[in-house]
Task: inverse folding
């Protein structure tokens, strides 16, 4: 049972345009949502996060939107650059007891920004 | 430079052999994690440790074992009981076990079982 879903395995966008990556979740108890970026043969790196009590968080070219009623979040990249080409993972944080939190990851979306 | 070091980067193993993947961090982080990534799949949690000498099973712990004898080190042993061990393994650490969940990842170890 997948609690965090990224239904688009891949996305191609022209350089300078907006990239929108989507993520759906099923567990309403998630506290935080995070986006990670991963280049081939490297570990993921943290990109941006949003608390479940907010609906928007912005950091430079990256904005994450959260729609709790729809259990949906999205990552917007504006403008898209070729260096943004990577796999983007959506992740959700859940309290797992004894002061511990666990992250559940989606399967990832491969973004290709075409020059 | 502070960071997480995983070794080896590539490893080949014959069926029936145990193998240990190393993970060392000099970030002074309390929490450490092991994830597995398969093609077209998200990262799945194998084991995690919030403090020295303590660790918990993640979603797919069967066939794996860990130890946390030092704060800096969290080695993962892939045993012969793991049915499908060929995968990309990622170690991560976190400065605090809070809800923000920001993880710092190593570069990964790719294990191939021949």
Result:
């Amino acid at each position: 049972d997948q609690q965090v879903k990224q239904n688009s395995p891949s996305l191609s966008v022209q350089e300078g345009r907006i990239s929108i990556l989507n993520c759906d979740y099923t567990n309403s108890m998630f506290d935080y949502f995070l986006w990670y970026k991963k280049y081939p043969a490297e570990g993921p790196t943290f990109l941006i996060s949003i608390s479940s009590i907010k609906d928007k968080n912005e950091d430079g070219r990256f904005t994450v939107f959260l729609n709790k009623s729809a259990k949906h979040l999205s990552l917007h990249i504006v403008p898209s650059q070729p260096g943004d080409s990577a796999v983007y993972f959506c992740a959700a944080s859940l309290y797992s007891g004894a002061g511990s939190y666990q992250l559940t990851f989606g399967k990832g979306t491969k973004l290709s920004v075409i020059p | 430079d502070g960071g997480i070091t995983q070794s080896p980067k590539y490893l080949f193993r014959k069926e029936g052999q145990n193998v240990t993947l190393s993970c060392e961090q000099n970030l002074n982080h309390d929490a450490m994690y092991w994830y597995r990534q398969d093609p077209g799949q998200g990262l799945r949690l194998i084991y995690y440790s919030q403090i020295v000498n303590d660790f918990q099973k993640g979603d797919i712990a069967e066939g794996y074992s860990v130890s946390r004898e030092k704060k800096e080190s969290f080695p993962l042993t892939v045993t012969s009981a793991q049915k499908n061990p060929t995968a990309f393994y990622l170690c991560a650490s976190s400065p605090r076990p809070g809800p923000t969940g920001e993880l710092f990842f190593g570069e990964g170890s790719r294990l191939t079982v021949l």
